[in-house]
Amino acid sequence: MELLSQVYREYLDLKEINPQPPEQAVRRLIKVVGDLPIDQYDRGHAKAFLASYEGQKTTTRRRRLQCLTAIINYAYYEYDIDKRNPFARIIIKGENKDITQREPFSVAELKALYRHSLSFGKLRLILPILGETGARLSEILGLSKDDVSEVDGLSVFHIRENPCRGLKTSGSDRSVPLVSKSATQALQRLLEAKTDSPYLFPRYARDGYLNNTGASATLCKYLRVNYKGKTTHCMRHSMRDRLRDADVPLEAIDAIGGWSSVGGVGTNYGKGHSMPKLAEYLRRIAI
After folding, report:
1. Enclosing H/E stretch for 157
2. What is the pTM of this model?
3. Confidence class of residue 271 from pLDDT cuts 50, 70 and 90?
4. Does residue 63 sit in the same domain as residue 113?
């Protein structure tokens, strides 16, 4: 019977997904109980794996369990193993009770953050871009120089899969115009940086690898100290609030941020919003 590590590589090759979350889970399980034949894992192993994440958020623990559940489910079907998945339906004590709601950034906070970020440079140049596009950290951190182009006279980010990283959902694949002065200045400095790398953030991105965890830790440490515990993801929430307050249509908000549309089947018809139209909406809130 194949070992977990073998099944994982096969699963990853077939699914073509972001390898980081499942790889973290598989490595942790192997470290805790060993790289066993896939049919030899039991409930005790699953509980030992869960216990190794003691002290971490219950949402994190659940995500890691779900990664292993998916891999084991694949193996049981593929190798015709008649056994209950030991990683499924595990109760996590206090699940979701440790969730803390962080406030989005105010416009005043964003203005100060952008000013400081442009003065500091380096990784912090990503902050005005995140704040003015509503993109996820990994989406901007993994951008290549070829993902930036001019469309209808506008600077446009093309957020799409590349050798550095995948995307969270199919709706994440999108193009977003950049109209904010702060974000445009940050982008210009990144493009002018003297580096042979095809990526905007070569310290964190290269083909086959994206150090999203390291970048997130660095940025969030700075934000938590200076902005009352906020994180980079709070900027994404702020963008949605700002667009909503500016009376931007929901379908356009979803298109800008790559959120799953709640507009029904009809939202998938046609080519979607033009870059000039999205730019018009973004100018309403640009900093």
Report:
1. strand 154-159
2. 0.74
3. low
4. no
